[in-house]
Write a structure and sequence with these properties.
The protein has 5 helices and no strands. Helix 2 packs antiparallel against helix 4 and helix 3 packs antiparallel against helix 4. The protein is elongated, with a radius of gyration of 22 Å.
């Protein structure tokens, strides 16, 4: 969605009251486009957390090293602990990123626009 999702009638109204193209972008289009842009960033970050977790399977650096070490040593005393530690680490990191994006949205999305989302 982004900038293309902004209602053309609102952009036309901004033109009608004499706003310059830069002012329209800064005061009308970006504030209205920011919530879907931020939602896309949140979804992309969550996908990245999952990809980073399974990147360790391809012997790359990734968040899943603990998980795969634990799976490789199934039957040992600490196998379950390693899997749980890796999984909880990934979940906590994903939740922290998501909370940061929610906070960013609360701080940057005007209240009137935020009220229309729900």
């Amino acid at each position: 969605m982004g900038l293309r999702g902004v209602d053309p009638a609102l952009v036309d109204a901004a033109k009608g009251i004499g706003m310059s193209p830069a002012a329209r972008l800064a005061r009308v289009e970006l504030p209205l486009a920011w919530p879907p842009i931020l939602a896309g960033i949140r979804v992309s970050t969550q996908m990245l957390m999952g990809i980073a977790a399974i990147a360790a399977y391809a012997s790359g650096p990734g968040l899943g090293n603990e998980i795969f070490r634990g799976i490789a040593s199934l039957g040992s005393a600490n196998a379950l602990n390693q899997v749980l530690a890796g999984t909880l680490g990934i979940v906590i990191l994903a939740l922290l990123f998501d909370a940061a994006y929610v906070l960013l949205g609360r701080l940057t999305i005007p209240r009137g626009i935020r009220g229309r989302e729900h």
